[in-house]
Amino acid sequence: METSVKPTSTLVFDKDLDLKVDVYLPPSIVDGQPESGEEVLKRQDELKKLPAVVYFHHGGMVSGDRAGIFPPDLPERLTSKGIILFSPDYRLLHPSNASDLLTDVHNFFSYLSPYSKPKALISLLSASGFALDPSRLVVLGASGGNYAARGAAVMPTVSPRPIGWVSAFGQGNDWLIDEWLKPKDIQTAFPPSHFAYDDAKAEELLKLDEKDFSVADKFTLIDGKFATEKGRSNLQRIWQRDGVYLDHLLRAPGLSESLASIPYPSRLSRLGFLDARYPHLLLPLSPSVPANVYILHGADDKIISVQESKSLEKALGQLGEFKGKKREVAVDYVQGAGHGLSAEGKKLGEYAEGYDAAMDKLTEWIVKVLA
Question: What is the pTM of this model?
């Protein structure tokens, strides 16, 4: 699901870690050149202020990269409507963990803050006659990228605050279901006919030192099968096979097995008893959750269970109002669709029959929220 559209520019938002963001801009309304210094800051009131979508890429939190955008034509869909698209890096699980990833989310949103005055971004936008409106942001997470998007949506310390959140076949909406805590038949989720397996590579990657963090592992084909260039996608498969994803998310060996042995309703309290930090890192919903949430999931998804999205839908229904107003939760469970709205049982890379309609509905929702 890598987009063929080239970003307008790629900027560094975290110089210490060299984390970058791809920026996709609408067509320029002026014939300008990037400015520098104080001059660009003085002109902000003269520029057209645009909303933006912050997109966190798929890859099970262990692979993928910022060019892996869903849907692949999202840049065109948004920029044609006058919406900026940001696709930032974030540190991938192992050797990084949940805390590292959420730090990257905080740092990216801080980069967008008007108080930080990121001159490279301001200069890029102003050359096209634009400025960012930080009061109109939607965060979108696809698959594993939903954990980062959920972090932006629920953590009150993230600023500027998004006004909308899209969970697209999202991972991380309920880490305490059996799906994550118990061993799984991965050949159903990842058929060997479609996915390249390399358990030895996964074991090699598990030996990485903390300093050897990664922010990208591009998807590719090996002998016609889905794989990633560094082989990090194998981590997702062995963690799901062994039921230990949570162990690696929280860097807590044996945690999944401990929780799996008790009934689902008791797992959250047990988690807090083991370590008070753990529940926070599972990102429980809070009053900070935006008033507008969109849930998209293939009804036949075998990689990220639709139960994740149904758990989110239920929890949002129990959350109550947002600043005195009813939360608007839109839900689209696409029938006959697998992970990423793929067509079950058809040619590799084909989308399900309801894909086009689902993408149109999602685009319309984003445009409406950001209007």
Answer: 0.95
